Amino acid sequence: MSTCAPIDWQRTDTVLLDMDGTLLDLRFDNLFWKQHLPRRLAELKNLPAGEAEQAVFPRMARLQGRIEWYCLDYWSRELEVDMLALKREIAHLIGWRPHARAFLEALGRADKRRVLVTNAHPDVLRLKVAQTGLDAHLDAIISAHDLQRPKEEQDFWHRLQQHAPFRPERSVLIDDNLAALASAQSYGVGTVLGIRRPDSSANPVAAPDVTLLECFSDVLPTAQVTG
């Protein structure tokens, strides 16, 4: 595994970027799913903590990698709660990963196309954009829900090509989702990079077969870190 991931900027036109765990700290999402949602579900439904966890965790395991996993409407319907309202309760925890904003700004100055490709539901996407101003640093934003396929599936990349054409061999994908990286690589995306520490409150991840990015300052298309 390498934690230093140089990008050949001379051969790169488009940078495809994940949101949660890549540009934004995954701490918010992990805390929401592992702690906040089960706790609030127990309170709202007057359930024992263990029963509330059993309503959430087995479903999460079964749906991993499927579009339903990321679908706020699905979870609101299945759990009979307002998922977006619950996310808003801890929205103050939504934040950038180190140097992510500076990286996007540097890409803009270098005339590289910056495309957000996220599995996040559009309502969650809007919440995080409102909290961070993320959209001001991007050239396009694509939710998997717009394409009706998650990034883990090959069909996502085919549909993305129709929706927002790009040259795979001259593109980079940066994503903390290892299955999404593998799918993109199979499609022909020239460079795929993972994230060493997607959650600032958790230990670094291990992925022997994937190049992991320690910090965006390692791959700035200019020599200086600007913020």
Automatic annotation (TrEMBL):
<dbReference type="GO" id="GO:0006281">
    <property type="term" value="P:DNA repair"/>
</dbReference>
<dbReference type="GO" id="GO:0008967">
    <property type="term" value="F:phosphoglycolate phosphatase activity"/>
</dbReference>
<dbReference type="InterPro" id="IPR023214">
    <property type="entry name" value="HAD_sf"/>
</dbReference>
<protein>
    <submittedName>
        <fullName>Putative hydrolase of the HAD superfamily</fullName>
    </submittedName>
</protein>
<dbReference type="InterPro" id="IPR006439">
    <property type="entry name" value="HAD-SF_hydro_IA"/>
</dbReference>
<dbReference type="Pfam" id="PF00702">
    <property type="entry name" value="Hydrolase"/>
</dbReference>
<dbReference type="GO" id="GO:0005829">
    <property type="term" value="C:cytosol"/>
</dbReference>
<keyword id="KW-0378">Hydrolase</keyword>
<dbReference type="InterPro" id="IPR050155">
    <property type="entry name" value="HAD-like_hydrolase_sf"/>
</dbReference>
<dbReference type="InterPro" id="IPR036412">
    <property type="entry name" value="HAD-like_sf"/>
</dbReference>
